[in-house]
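Lab notebook: predicted structure, single chain.

Context: the supervisor wants predicted structures on file for every construct in the current expression panel, including those that have not yet been purified. This is the next one on the list. No modifications to the sequence; it matches the entry in the shared construct table.
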Amino acid sequence: MTLPQHKIMQNGNGFQSSTQYPFGYPLNQGVLILPFPDTAGFYMMIDGIHKNIVIDVATERLRYSIIDMNWNSGMGKVTEKTLTIPNSTDTLNIGHLSAVRHGNGRDWWILTMKFESNIFRRFLLSDQGINAVGEQTIGEAVPNSVGYSAYSPNGEWYAHYNAYGHSSNPKASVHFYRFDRCTGLLRDAHYKFYPGVESYGGVAFSLNSRYLYVSKYTKIFQYDLETPDILASEQVVAEYDGFLDGNGVPTRFYGLLLAPDGKIYGNIPNFNSRYIHVIDQPNLAGDSCNVIQHAIFLPADNFGTLPNLPYYRLYEAEGSPCDTLAVTTHWLPPVAAPNIRVWPVPAADVLHLSAEGGWTEPLTLRLYDALGRLTLSVEGLRVSPYAQVNLSELSAGAYFFTLTRQDGTLVKTGKVVRTR
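Prediction complete. Output recorded below exactly as produced.
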């Protein structure tokens, strides 16, 4: 096992502007890192590019980067960086990036919301990459907001907490839905808009997936998901006790996270603090869940952050086997383009690409082996009239290729074979 060195890995800097974010990336769940299915040591990092809309900040597109931990004696390397996820260019609500395993127990679902709407975008990370799968309109519109989202450990529920409005008129709401791990679709929408001026908060599910916990600045609520009227089951299981840390900072409630030990941990909003809260027995109803405020004293200050981790102990869905072949293809359908030839097949040391007509835009060629690992990337190819790519460093075998435009839009996919 390679011990952490707390250093920037190779090619691991410059994801966001240091001028725009001099003290670090400020968004709750603004970055998500997931293991690449069936490919040991490979991870995909997902984040967004943001833009100002009058007085709001929104996400204008999602990006992905590939991390290969097989480099540098286990210290890793970023091998693909900040590439646009196809069909993600839109105005989206900020943050709230979370994930859950697909019903096949291998792939990952990621949901995002269009800006100030009730329209969800579905993305699927499989061994073929990340793909947009479709949209769904459901429930009440959600204002652009900061907050947290979470899936239940059994994968049957999805919830998001939203803090929005402005400092003079802050507002908050929670929305939760049943979730289908095979299709990525939501149903049975529930929502509550909270009164009052307290906005910061988060959500988490108990390990047994029965209880939804919502933290809202000075209170923590519990909802029983097995009752006919879930919202009517609301219980206040904690109220801020007025404790101040050594710097005089109030230790109110903010984000929540279900940890591997089955407890739920909560951080402090607004200021640096060295305390976190614990819901000690979240599987139990009411006060029996035992919220312990400012329970843990950290070795260093923490400013409103929690690890953004999915629940890894969720495997193949029981009783209803499903696979991604039912909802997605190898890659997204290519854009209309002139006939681009990739030849010969099989090829020896050189691969040729040519396009009919006046295709002047440079393209990027990527080759992937049978395990979905990136083996070759060539940018700036001019395929009209033709281009050549050297294959001499590749092992003999079959490879899948993608040709994409500079904005990440797919133009062509296919298969090539390299011979010796």
